[in-house]
Give the backbone structure.
Amino acid sequence: MKAYKDVLDLASILGLKGFKENIDALIQEAEAQKISYLSFLQKILLSEVSDRAKKRLHRNFTGARLPVEKQFKTYKFERVEGITQKDIANLVDCSWLDRHENILLFGPPGIGKTHIAIALGMNCLAKGYTVCFERVTNLMRLLKMAGIQKSAEFRLNRIMKANLIIIDEIGYTPIDRKEANMFFNLVSEVYEKSSIIITSNKSFENWAEMLGDQVMTTALLDRLLHHAKIFNMNGDSYRLPKKIKKEESSQK
C-alpha cells in the first residue's frame, strides 16, 4: 500500500521511531475499536512519547555506569546506626536533587555506604534524572586523561552535566596534591548545579591530611557542606561475616 509506505517514510523524516515500531498494532486496534481520527492521533503520540521515555531511561541507566543494582529493601537498616528507613523515605522524592543538595555518607568499610549510594542513584534514574557513578580512583584517572584521551573527555563531560554525581570510596587510596586540586576544581565547577553523593571511610577531620592542603580542603568542604545531608554510619561489616561463614564452610 502506497499510503502505508508514505506514512512510514514520513515517520522516518519526523524521527517517530516509536510510531514506526508500533504502527501495525495501532492500526489494528483503531480498526477493531472504530475509534475517531482524534483518538487515533492521540494513541500515535502517546506511543511515541512512551517509546522515547523507555529509550531515554535505558540510555540513562547505561550512562550511569552503576557497578551493580541495589535496592533499599535489601539493606539491613537494623544493623547500622546513623541512617534509618525514615531518612531514606525523606529522600526518595528527589526534591533534594532539585535543590542541588549533596549527600555525604561516612563510616567504616563494609556497612553499606555504597549500597545506599547506588540505591539512591537508581531511584533518581527511575524518576528521569541523569546519574554518573565513579569510584574516586577512576575519577582521578579521568581527570588526568581528559585532555589527551577522547573517551575520558567524553565521560568527564557527561559527569559534569549529570544531575547526580556519585563519588565512591574517597579515603581508601592515597590522593596526591595534583589529584586533590583536580577534584576541588570538579566540585567547584558543579557547585549548585548538580548534586553529589560521596562515600568515605574518612571523617572531615582527616580530609586535610588525606588531600595534603588545609586551605584547599577547607574550601572544598565549604562547597560540599553548604547544601548537604550528612550521615555518619556505624555498625558491623556486612562482608566480614559472609567471608568467615564462607571460610568455615570450605574447611568442613
About this structure: The longest helix spans residues 37-64. The chain has two domains: 2-62, 72-240.
